[in-house]
Structures are given as structure tokens and as C-alpha cells.
Design goal:
This protein is of the alpha+beta class. It is built from five helices and six strands, in the order ααααββββββα. Strand 4 and strand 5 form a beta hairpin.
């Protein structure tokens, strides 16, 4: 057995593995470790890119808002003008019926024969026109101020003169010279009225003073 081992030639021995140039090129190069400064730079670069993206998005939003606001400025005045014009047309249209009724009443007065019945019919027509006008004004928020028989209110009444009527409360409106109107709760025009003003009664002190004066004069 020993002789067999010694008789083997060197060519029969297993060759050793020797690295070649190709193997050395294919082997991966180990990555270089990043320093803390490199990590910080990479982090800041990512933040800068994110801020650039956010800035672009905000700029786009700003441009869109600017365009929307410009369109809004152009659109609103036209909408307001259209709304005002519509309200005017609605109000004027409501008055046309009153004009028609006035025309009918005048034509009836011209063609009617003289007599109490014709006059009453004509008056009824005028009253109908008047009521229709009040209704048209009320539909627009305008209402007539109640005056006669009401306490005088300087916010809605204007006193032209005073008159004394003992059977009526002091400060009551006796007559209305010109009607007043309210527009949506605010005075559009005050009523011009005549107000009841009773003579003031003397107080007990004034009565006593007058009596003392009379006694002194008598003495």
C-alpha cells in the first residue's frame, strides 16, 4: 500500500484552485460606509425636493384662486344689477293693473249718466284701484302707517298742529293730513297728523299757592 502511494506521479495530484482575473472583476465591491454628514446631506436633499413640490402645488392653488376671484369680481356686479332690474320689473308690472283700473274708472265716469248709483259705482272703482295700489306696495315691503286713533309716536308721526278734544285721550292722533309709510320695519315717510292736546290741570301745590295769593289780596 505504501508503495502504491509513493508510485503516484505529481500529475495525478488534485490541482489547487487559483483565482483568475475574470473572477476578481466579477466579485462585488463592498459598499463604502456612509458618514453621519453624508446621511444628513441626503436627508436635507430629500426635504428640499419635498419643499419644491409643495411650493409648486401652493403656487398652482394661488393661481387658481386668483383666477376664480377675478371671475367672481366680474360676475357679482352683473348678478346684482340683474337682481335689481328684476325687482324693478316685478314692481312696475304690479302697478299696471292699477293703471288699467284707473282707466276703466275714468271711462266709466265719462260715459255714465248722472245719478247717485253711477257716482257710487265710480267711487267703488276708485277704492278698488286704491286698494290694489296698497297691495302692490305691500308686496314690496311698503305698508301704510296706522295713525288716526293711535297714540302719537314721533318715530312714525309728524305733528302739524294740536287740537283739544276733551272726550279723547291726551296725545291721541285726531286727524291725518298726509299718510305715512314703512319700508320693511323702517319709516319711509312719517304721517303728518293733528294731535290731541288737552290743557294741563294745575297741581295741588299750584292750587294752594293760588288760594294763598287770593287770601293775601283779600286781606
Amino acid at each position: 500500500m505504501k508503495e502504491d502511494n509513493e508510485s503516484k506521479s505529481p500529475d495525478d495530484a488534485s490541482p489547487e484552485t487559483v483565482p483568475t482575473a475574470a473572477d476578481s472583476k466579477a466579485a462585488p465591491t463592498p459598499a463604502k460606509d456612509m458618514t453621519p454628514a453624508d446621511s444628513k446631506i441626503q436627508e436635507l436633499s430629500a426635504q428640499v425636493e419635498q419643499l419644491k413640490t409643495e411650493k409648486q402645488e401652493l403656487n398652482d392653488k394661488y393661481l387658481r384662486l386668483g383666477a376664480d376671484y377675478a371671475n367672481f369680481q366680474k360676475r357679482v356686479p352683473k348678478q346684482v344689477a340683474d337682481s335689481v332690474e328684476y325687482e324693478k320689473r316685478t314692481f312696475l308690472r304690479s302697478l299696471l293693473t292699477s293703471l288699467d283700473n284707473f282707466s276703466h274708472a275714468l271711462n266709466g265716469a265719462e260715459t255714465a249718466t248722472a245719478g247717485p248709483e253711477a257716482m257710487q259705482s265710480w267711487i267703488a272703482g276708485i277704492r278698488m284701484v286704491y286698494q290694489h295700489l296698497l297691495d302692490a306696495l305691500k308686496s314690496q315691503g311698503i305698508e301704510r302707517v296706522a295713525s288716526v286713533g293711535k297714540p302719537f309716536d314721533p318715530s312714525i308721526h309728524e305733528a302739524l298742529t294740536f287740537r283739544a278734544e276733551a272726550d279723547k285721550p291726551n296725545g291721541m292722533v285726531l286727524e291725518e293730513y298726509q299718510g305715512g309709510y314703512m319700508y320693511r320695519g323702517q319709516t319711509l315717510r312719517p304721517s303728518k297728523v293733528i294731535v290731541n292736546k288737552l290743557p294741563s290741570e294745575p297741581t295741588s301745590e299750584e292750587t294752594t299757592d293760588d288760594a294763598d295769593g287770593a287770601d293775601a289780596t283779600g286781606k
